[in-house]
Amino acid sequence: MNLIIRLLLNAIAVFVLANVLNGVNVNGYATAIVVALVLSILNLIVKPILVIFTLPITIVTLGLFMFVINACIVLLVDKFVDGFYVDSFWVALLFSVLLSILQSLLQSFLKQD
């Protein structure tokens, strides 16, 4: 049950950011839920592999390269999900940073229960 609530909160965050940012488009609520699901799956499977391969550059940049990895994950979601469009890498970078902030704010409400 908690997983479904988190997924819906992530979908809300995706939908809100798509309406706020100019370079991100989501066609509807169902697409936002699919984007949240695919984003979660890619973060679970692909992100650890990318982190291992880019560990030296992540260490040299003191972890700032993780922002680039997150933007690449968002661009992968753009390729996989029809109805979700990101204009450029920089928009994906901004989207991923804002999505992380908004997700942590929304999920902090769950921890208060």
Automatic annotation (TrEMBL):
InterPro entries: Phage_holin_4_2 (IPR007165). It holds the Pfam family Phage_holin_4_2. The keyword Membrane applies. The chain crosses the membrane at residues 28-46, 53-77, 89-110. It comes from the Bacteria. Keywords: Membrane, Transmembrane, Transmembrane helix. This is Phage holin family protein. The lineage of its organism: Bacteria, Pseudomonadati, Bacteroidota, Flavobacteriia, Flavobacteriales.
